Amino acid sequence: MAKVLEREAVYLWYFFTVQLEQVAPYWILGMAIGSVVSVFGKKGIHALFEKLDNKKWGIAGVVPASLIGIASPLCMYGTIPIAASFSAKGARDDWLAAFMMSSILLNPQLIIYSAALGKTALVIRIASCFVCGIAAGLFVRLFRKDEGFFEFSSFEAPQSRDLDKNLILRYLKSLWRNVKATGIHFLVGVALSAAFQRYVPADTVAGLFGPQKGFGVLMAATIGVPLYACGGGTIPLLQQWLASGMSMGSASAFMITGPATKITNLGAVKIALGTKMFAAYIAFSILFSLVLGMTVDLLI
């Protein structure tokens, strides 16, 4: 028995180190670039949103709003107070919906992480998150044009933690916060990926998540709800699933429902939307992921 356990430990360690070697550079680079954006570019990015002119952009403002959301380095608990401050200054709800939706789904750090999945997955992730933000803005515009969509009264303006006068120290502090926030999730993701490689046959993945009349997309969208904990932690799993036969459409669906329904975010989202609109948000996220996944499988 001891020899069996020792052998399994050796196998798992091998798979762990191989996976770590493959994805760790993207994780490190993502944290480094994410901290640069957070410390030196965050104010400028959010200032762009405040400069959007309603008379000039109108409903088309959901397009730059979605782009700005992707560029924003803040997590959900930083994004909602920022959006609340924009709302207090008169920003339109459809623009805010586009900004918040794309910001929930993607940020500069996660873009770098996702490069480990290959060019196709990276392009699909960026494009789909951008389109999802636009779609959320249009949804609010079409169905809630004359009614309030957000409830921001519970949120105060966020206080920046990047205040150290020494720029190097400010950057290092931000980098350390990123390490603490993502490190454990990343290592757990690598460990799960190693166990997956060792014990789950590739045929099983191909059977569950392959392009089979949308079943794989539905499965991926469904497991994205409870499984997603951190972008950095799911990259190793997605990388292995794709290598084992997961369709690109299934991966695309997972990359939408995962961050959109991340359990640590949902409490803040519910407060900002209220019960009725929170239900609409969940339904919108799942429906968009299903349509996206099936479309991607038809095209690729």
Largest sheet: none
Alpha carbon gyration radius: 20 Å
Q: How would the global form be characterised? A: globular
Q: Strand tally, please?
A: 0
Residue stretches low in confidence (pLDDT < 50, at least 5 long) are: none
Characterise this structure.
The protein is an all-alpha fold. The chain has one domain (2-299). The chain is built from 13 helices and no strands. The protein has helices at residues 2-50, 54-57, 62-71, 76-88, 93-105, 108-114, 119-143, 167-199, 202-209, 215-227, 231-243, 248-260, 263-299. α1 packs across α6 and α5 (93-105) packs antiparallel against α7 (119-143). The protein is globular, with a radius of gyration of 20 Å. The mean pLDDT is 84.
SSE map:
Elements (H helix, E strand, L loop, with lengths): L1 H49 L3 H4 L4 H10 L4 H13 L4 H13 L2 H7 L4 H25 L23 H33 L2 H8 L5 H13 L3 H13 L4 H13 L2 H37 L1
Helix pairs in contact: 1-3, 1-6, 1-8, 3-5, 3-7, 4-5, 5-7, 7-12, 8-11, 10-12, 10-13, 12-13
What labels would you give this structure?
300 residues; mainly alpha; 79% helix; globular
Task: Explain briefly what this protein structure is.
The chain is 79% helix and 0% strand. The protein is mainly alpha-helical. Helix 1 packs across helix 3, helix 3 packs across helix 7 and helix 5 packs antiparallel against helix 7.
